[in-house]
Structure formats: C-alpha cells, structure tokens
C-alpha cells in the first residue's frame, strides 16, 4: 500500500520505517529540509534503539522515501498520515497549527480520494477541524474530491518505539462515517495493519472522538500512577517507611501490578506533561474542573524540585534561598534524558535541577549515554556546565553525585571510585537505583526518594 507520512519526528519516522519494513511503500515528508537531506543519506536525527538499521535497509530497498515537497508527498499515498507536533499553547491547550497546516497541504495538492489519518495527539474534536480545513481548501480550489478523516493515536514509547510499533498491544482506529465509506476505510486500515496483527486481531475500531480521548486517557492514567507513587514516597519519607518496600507490597496485587509504580524525581518528556495540561485545558473549556489531573500535574511539578531540596537539606540551606552555600560546588549528574534509552530532554527533570544548581552558583559535570548532543544544543553556552565523556570522568573533582536518569549503566557503579573522587562522599539518587544500606556500608552518604526508614 502507498502511504505518506507528514512529520519525521519520533512518531512519524518510526511509523514510516516500520510500515516500510513490512512491505508498504512509504514516503515521509517534513518541512525541515535539513532533516530530510540527512535522512536521505541514512542519517537518523534521533536516538531510538533499532531504528537506524530499518531506516537504512528500507531506503536501500526503495520502500522508504523522503521528501520536503508537499505536492510530491500528497500525490504518493492513498493514506496520508499526520504525525506532526502538537506542543502546548500558552494556556496549556494543544497547539494545532502544524496539524491544520498538513490538512491544508493535503487539500491543496490532492487530485484523487484520500484517507487522512491523524496520528498526532490532539484534543477531542480535532478531526472535525481537520475535515473543515481540508474541505474549505477544496472549495477554494472548486474541486469535488472525496476524503475521510480518521483518528489513529499512537502509543509507542520513546526508547522502545520500534518494538512497540512492530508489536503493538493495540491499534486504536476511530472512524465516524457510516455505510459504504466506513466499510472502505475500515478495510484499508485492516490491510495496512494486517502485518502487525498476524497472531490475533489488535485493531480496536471506535468513533473518532473516543479514539482521540483514548490517547489522553492512556497518558493521563500513566502520569497519575507516577504522581500517585511520588505522593506515597513523600508520605513514606515523613512517616519513616520505605517506599520501595511499599511498592513491592502493592505491586503484588494483580489489580495494581508492578508496572509504572516507580517513585522518582518526576515525569518529563514530550508527552505526559503536555497531554495532562491539554486535557485539563479541554475540561476547563467545557466548564469541568479536572481535579485529579490538576493534582497529578502539581505533584509532578513539586517532585521535579525534589533533588534540589534534598541537596539543600544535606548542605543545610533553604531551597528557596540557598544563599552562597552551594556556590562553586561541583555536582556530577548521571543522566540528562527524561528517561533511559532516549536522547530526548524535553521537560526532563535534569533541566529543572541543573537550572536550580546554576542559579545557586553551583557547577554541573554531566554524563548521559545518549543525550549529550541534545544537552549541548540546549545549554551549549551555559556557564557552569561541563559535559563529560564517561560516567567516571564526570566524577573527577566533584563534590556530590546526583543520579537523574535510570540508565542501566548506572546500576552497578564502582562505589570505591565514587568515594575516592567525590569530595563530600554523597549520592542523591533521584531514581532509587541503589539500596541505601549497600551505599552507606561503603561509607558514602545516600539520599533516595521516599526511603524513610531505610536511610
Ligand atoms: P517531533 O517534534 O519529534 O516531530 C514533529 C515533526 O513534524 C518535526 O520533524 C517537524 O519538522 C515536522 N513538521 C512540522 N510541521 C510540519 C508540516 N506542516 N509538514 C510536515 N512536517 C512537519 O514530534 P513527535 O514526538 O514525533 O510527536 C508527534 C505527535 O505524536 C505529537 O502530537 C505527540 O504528542 C504524539 N506522540 C508522541 C509520542 C512520543 O513518544 N514522542 C508518542 C505518542 C504520540
């Protein structure tokens, strides 16, 4: 099947590569010509495990094409995916300008029937806006061409995106039209996704609005689990309980489960913060106060300050006004990406911490296995930032070690080296990667999240 994908970010590029891998003929379009030029040469703009080989293989086989020419892109695919960004507007609502620009491009250049599939995360009702935008362009062109607008939200996780795309838990498809058109669109989507449903049916068909809300409901549920555990961790700390023991105690209940109940220094990334905000905003516009979601966001904002608060507690200063206590101190940061196996630093807790440390006059020596270039891009000129080539070199002449992202490579560090290199012999562990007693037995101070009795 011939497929066009607008947007070659995490979602568009991974989707395009996976559809090409199973045999579809895919053309990816992006307005970022530099990105497209590099992709044509097989240079992947993001770090995503397993992505590079399938992009390269499918460029070579001719199944995966790249263009920045919208007309060429529109004429290629019978199915036109929208996978562009939907960043938060100032009031937290999703900014739809990129989505609607793609709708306009499709209607500007289409000369036969198209199925427009929206994969971007968009507020309920966006399909109607996409349809109206495309229709008004067709009217302006004075042409009569049939098209459908359907919703197919994406559930892939950065860091496991290729696997999630090749082996999805479910594929949600929202279609509104009745009768023959619906049958045709449904059949096309079944054919498109058949290679991913070989063992059992994974497509869940529903109406468009329900599909649009399904995506927000999923991300808000996951964000809620994280904020809930962070709240429990903060309580555990105060009552002298260890959240890690509590986590095991509740995870063993199958109604709760072990997944996604890890306390830490807050969620980040390009999705949870913006999607929680967007659903709060949608609710507000409709006169409903989304109390749980507002709390989820507030708890997370507070949690992102947690590491700095622990640091201030250790050094005996007020986090709101640390004075000169931290001035000149050197903090090693292990981990910059918002989670492991990605180079994405959007809304990462590391950014909140680094900015607080710099404001207090401290210095940062940071190492991340994948996000160094991204950090350089964001903070390249920042005074007090040194990007180091290895976890060990980042410890050199440091005063304290802070673990911000739970990369596997930080799981079994050389504690003797830490003790030797880190002047104040203390670890602030924002991801509870280590057992407090093990670290403290080595003669190193330890602060974790919600580890009350254990510390
Ligand atoms: P991204 O910012 O990584 O990429 C978006 C791309 O779209 C950019 O390359 C940009 O140049 C391009 N673009 C902008 N306007 C365009 C236009 N008119 N035509 C063609 N290309 C255009 O975004 P992303 O992380 O891939 O997310 C895309 C959407 O998918 C968002 O709505 C996001 O919420 C959603 N989503 C993201 C993830 C994730 O893990 N990143 C997961 C599920 C859903």
UniProtKB/TrEMBL annotation:
Pfam families per record: UDPG_MGDP_dh, UDPG_MGDP_dh_C, UDPG_MGDP_dh_N
Name by which UniProt lists this protein: UDP-glucose 6-dehydrogenase
Residues in UDP-glucose/GDP-mannose dehydrogenase C-terminal domain copies: 332-436
GO molecular function: NAD binding; UDP-glucose 6-dehydrogenase activity
Top-level EC class as recorded in UniProt: oxidoreductase
Recorded catalytic activity of this chain's protein: UDP-alpha-D-glucose + 2 NAD(+) + H2O = UDP-alpha-D-glucuronate + 2 NADH + 3 H(+)
Keyword Transmembrane in annotation: no
Superkingdom of origin organism: Bacteria
Annotated substrate binding sites: 155-158, 215, 260-264, 268, 339
PROSITE patterns: PROKAR_LIPOPROTEIN (PS51257)
TM spans (from-to): none
Involved pathway(s): Nucleotide-sugar biosynthesis; UDP-alpha-D-glucuronate biosynthesis; UDP-alpha-D-glucuronate from UDP-alpha-D-glucose: step 1/1
Keywords: NAD, Oxidoreductase
InterPro entries found in the cross-reference section: 6-PGluconate_DH-like_C_sf, NAD(P)-bd_dom_sf, UDP-Glc/GDP-Man, UDP-Glc/GDP-Man_DH_C, UDP-Glc/GDP-Man_DH_C_sf, UDP-Glc/GDP-Man_DH_dimer, UDP-Glc/GDP-Man_DH_N, UDPglc_DH_bac
Enzyme Commission (EC) number: 1.1.1.22
Residues the record lists as binding NAD(+): 30, 35, 86, 121, 158, 274, 346
Active site per the UniProt annotation: 271
């Amino acid at each position: 099947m011939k497929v066009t994908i607008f947007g070659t970010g995490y979602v568009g590029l991974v989707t395009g590569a996976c559809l090409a891998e199973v045999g579809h003929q895919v053309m990816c379009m992006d307005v970022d010509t530099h990105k497209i030029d590099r992709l044509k040469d097989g240079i992947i703009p993001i770090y995503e495990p397993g992505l590079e080989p399938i992009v390269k293989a499918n460029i070579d086989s001719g199944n995966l094409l790249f263009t920045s020419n919208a007309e060429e892109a529109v004429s290629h695919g019978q199915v036109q995916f929208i996978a562009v960004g939907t960043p938060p507007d100032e009031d937290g609502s999703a900014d739809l300008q990129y989505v609607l620009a793609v709708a306009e491009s499709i209607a500007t250049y289409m000369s036969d029937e198209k199925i427009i599939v929206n994969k971007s995360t968009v507020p309920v009702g966006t399909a109607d806006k996409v349809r109206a935008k495309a229709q008004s362009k067709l009217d302006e062109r004075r042409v009569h061409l049939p098209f459908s607008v359907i919703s197919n939200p994406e559930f892939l996780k950065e860091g496991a995106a290729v696997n999630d795309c090749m082996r999805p838990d479910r594929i949600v498809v929202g279609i509104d039209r009745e009768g023959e058109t619906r049958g045709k669109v449904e059949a096309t989507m079944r054919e498109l996704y058949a290679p991913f449903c070989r063992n059992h049916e994974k497509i869940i068909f529903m109406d468009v609005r329900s599909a649009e809300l399904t995506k927000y409901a999923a991300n808000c549920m996951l964000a809620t689990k994280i904020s809930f555990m962070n709240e429990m961790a903060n309580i555990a700390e105060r009552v002298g309980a260890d959240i890690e023991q509590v986590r095991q105690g509740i995870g063993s209940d199958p109604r709760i489960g072990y997944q996604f109940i890890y306390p830490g220094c807050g969620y980040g990334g390009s999705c949870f913060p913006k999607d929680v905000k967007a659903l709060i905003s949608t609710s507000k516009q409709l006169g409903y106060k989304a109390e749980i979601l507002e709390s989820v966001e507030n708890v997370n904002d507070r949690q992102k300050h947690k590491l700095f608060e622990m640091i201030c507690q250790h050094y005996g200063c007020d986090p709101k006004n640390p004075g000169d206590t931290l001035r000149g101190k050197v903090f090693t940061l292990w981990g910059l990406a918002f989670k492991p196996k990605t180079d994405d630093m959007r809304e990462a807790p590391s950014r909140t911490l680094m900015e607080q440390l710099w404001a207090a006059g401290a210095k940062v020596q940071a190492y991340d296995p994948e996000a160094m270039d991204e950090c350089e891009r964001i903070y390249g000129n920042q005074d007090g930032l040194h990007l180091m080539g290895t976890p060990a070199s980042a410890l050199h002449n440091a005063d304290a070690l802070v673990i911000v992202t739970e990369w596997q490579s930080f799981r079994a560090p050389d504690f003797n080296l830490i003790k030797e290199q880190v002047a104040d012999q203390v670890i602030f562990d924002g991801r509870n990667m280590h057992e407090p007693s093990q670290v403290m037995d080595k003669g190193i101070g330890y602060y974790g999240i919600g580890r009350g009795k254990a510390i």
